[in-house]
């Protein structure tokens, strides 16, 4: 399930594994605490905000 949608009480299937803190900003590539599952929409919105 998409973790962002779950915070909004929506059940949407996740299609992406996302780095919470981007790797290019010091986030760990393989640390499970830096990973979250997101749907395509939430991943696209998060990526756009990070640019």
UniProtKB/TrEMBL annotation:
Residues 2-48 form the HNH domain. CDD domains: HNHc. InterPro entries: HNH, HNH_nuc. GO terms for molecular function: endonuclease activity; nucleic acid binding; zinc ion binding. It comes from the Bacteria. Pfam families: HNH. This is HNH domain-containing protein. It comes from Mucinivorans hirudinis.
